[in-house]
Model the fold of this input.
Amino acid sequence: MREVVSVLNREKSVAGYMVASLDEALLAASQTKKQVVILSMWQQDRTLVSRAVRRGVVFPIYDLAAARWLERLGASLSRRIVVHIKIDVGTMRLGFRFDDSSAVRQVLRMRHLAVTGVFSHFADSESANEGFTKKQYARFQQVVDALRQEGFTIPMYHISCSAAAIRSKRYHADAIRLGISLYGLWPSDDIKRLYARKRFFFRPVMTWKTRIVQMKTVRKGEPIGYGLTYRATRAMRLAVLPVGYADGYDRLLSNRAHVLVGGRRCAIRGRVCMNLCMIELPRRIAARVGSPVVLLGRQGDDVISAEELADIARTIHYEIIARINASIPRIIVP
Done:
């Protein structure tokens, strides 16, 4: 997050940051003067929340219990805490039901809460069928219109994720919340197929690299790794990499995925371990201890994409990116 904020702080079009947790909010707020909004749940820790309030962090209100807790804290601090109200329009996660107007109005009347936003979240905006997205947006607009008709002045309404922002300006409201597309990735194959030729081009900005830490020769018939899941079909060169599932490199990639060395694909051999994995080096690849290896991204004319790894691991590319361990250094390349 530090690296992302340091880059986006320079962008005038970026009004602020919307994050998933209180911890992320405190980290972002320590690096920027722009607004920081928490979108998901937060722990009711008086010390941490008070610190975030002093730094101007905006809190989500998704039920009356959270609202009352913040109201009491605001009273004890003799200040109004800035909040955005979360409306559930059919995703069935956090938020007040869109048809529960009485609860929303209770929050709006609390003396120590300053409501500056109302927001929601789409459940199916990445799909080719836009039907449920339109239905959810109509529900959200119903809430917006009702609040405006009753005279409530709320500066910001927001609902649009990457997929919805790409689909149509009708979903943009007062702010859009770019997530995966910020990293140069399409939200889904459906969105890519529908809109790639029309107006959008994405270039992935992330490359995940490591280096070879050991090389050895494996004889024909010898097993490789835990569980003896791969046996050499011939004498081969093996390279050991200091990356495993603890780092976010999924164990389901065992014996199925490839990495890039010298711009060429090299197969994972044996099971991915907790903090190591092994690859076969074809004879024509010149490599040694210390040679760079690309786990995700481009090297030469070839690419290992997040979508490719997700297909192998039977998941989505969001998870491939999100699970890369935060302890791994992020380096900004100009």
